[in-house]
Amino acid sequence: MIIRILSEGQFEVDGETLERINILDEELMQAIEEDDEARFNQTFHEVVRLVRSGTELEHHQLSESDLILPASDTTLSEAKKLFSEHPLE
Q1: Alpha carbons 87 and 10: distance in angstroms, whole number
Q2: pLDDT of 29-67, one tens digit each?
Q3: Whole-angstrom Cα distance, residue 32 to residue 51?
Q4: I need a labelling partner for 74 at 20 to 30 A (CA). Which of 28, 36, 42, 60 fits?
Q5: Which InterPro entries match (predicted)?
Q6: Distance (Å, rounded) from C-alpha 81 to C-alpha 11?
Q7: To the nearest 10°, the Cα dihedral for 38, 43, 48, 50?
């Protein structure tokens, strides 16, 4: 799966890494719902670390992203706004 981190680039991650990201995604959504900034920061940074552990695609290589993450310095309030404007279906 190809995941883009805004303002960084694209990374290809394997299935095992994607499974770990999916588990953390549930924790992220809970942290956002509960307005838990410490938990959000810790979990989001772990997701970003996992994505970065994948294979970075060359910047000149244009590939469609399967998933797009906000920039790695995204705050809880920015994430809440993002998900309120573009809810997951």
Answers
A1: 22
A2: 999 999 999 999 999 999 999 999 999 999 888 789 999
A3: 20
A4: 60
A5: PspA-assoc_dom
A6: 25
A7: 150
- Helix/strand/coil (H, E, C) string of 7-57? CCEEEECCHHHHHHHHHHHHHHHHHHHCCCHHHHHHHHHHHHHHHHCCEEC
Strands 2-5 and 67-69: parallel
Check: pTM over 0.70? Answer yes or no. Answer: yes
Alpha-carbon Rg for the chain, nearest whole angstrom, is 13
Question: What DSSP state is assigned to residue 81?
Answer: H
